[in-house]
Amino acid sequence: MADFKVITSDFVNLHISTSKDDISFSEKRFPKSLNIADLKAKLELMTGGNCNTMQVEAYTKDNQLLCKLDDNNALLGSYPLDNGMRLHVIDQFQIRNELDLGNEPKFELTDEEYAKKSDSVRAFLLKNKLGKYNEENQVKKDLLEAEEKKLAEATVIGARCKVTVQNAPSRLGTVMYSGPVEGLSGYWIGVKYDEPLGKNDGSVKGKKYFECPDKYGAFVKPHNVLCGDFPEEDYDLIEEI
């Protein structure tokens, strides 16, 4: 009897989202041989979260919680992840900052006083070379942001564009905004799509960046936007009998 082997890919394509906002990052390709600690380091560069404090949850294509990636030594391939699923990054610092403290008085230290503490989060990160205190990761993050800024500054407001995200159909639209978005890391391009295929009306967390109808607006990374001669298509609705 012949032997049959099930051959699986060495990589998995996953969507990324964060607890910081309702904007998802474009799908990313990760090697299954990556351990969770290294995965978090990559997610830190991508999302701006802190790899030492973040929690990572995996969701199915139906948006159901599948599992938590809480073993830093485990390999990504040891989790039951398939292409098209989503990793959700939760930043504990952010959750703490968003707590409603009401009228409770806040105890604050100056930067100089805080730097002298040996039991602070900063001291721990500095000692273990984590987060922004990891020089190699910080250099990579700075280079990525510099590249994003260059692309964003070269993107002309009002230009026609095509947005291409991996494993998703291309969408046509018009560039409406270019620059940083409050609460998000890096630089973003605000696009008004020709069809209601977006996620918002040009607003993020109540702040308006450009005008467009609801579901026509989206914010995407500069490398996903190609400007050019893309005429607006005619989407006349035909009444069916």
UniProtKB/TrEMBL annotation:
Chief site of localization: cytoplasm
Keywords noted in UniProt: Chaperone, Cytoplasm
GO CC aspect terms: cell cortex; cytosol; microtubule plus-end; nucleus
SMART domains: CAP_GLY
Origin superkingdom: Eukaryota
Subcellular location: Cytoplasm
Segments traversing the membrane: none
GO molecular function: alpha-tubulin binding; microtubule plus-end binding
Ranges for domain CAP-Gly: 179-221
Cross-referenced InterPro entries: CAP-Gly_dom_sf, CAP-Gly_domain, TBCB_Ubl, Ubiquitin-like_dom, Ubiquitin-like_domsf
Family matches, as Pfam families: CAP_GLY, Ubiquitin_2
GO BP terms in the entry: cytoplasmic microtubule organization; post-chaperonin tubulin folding pathway; tubulin complex assembly
Family, per entry: Belongs to the TBCB family.
Protein name per UniProt: CAP-Gly domain-containing protein
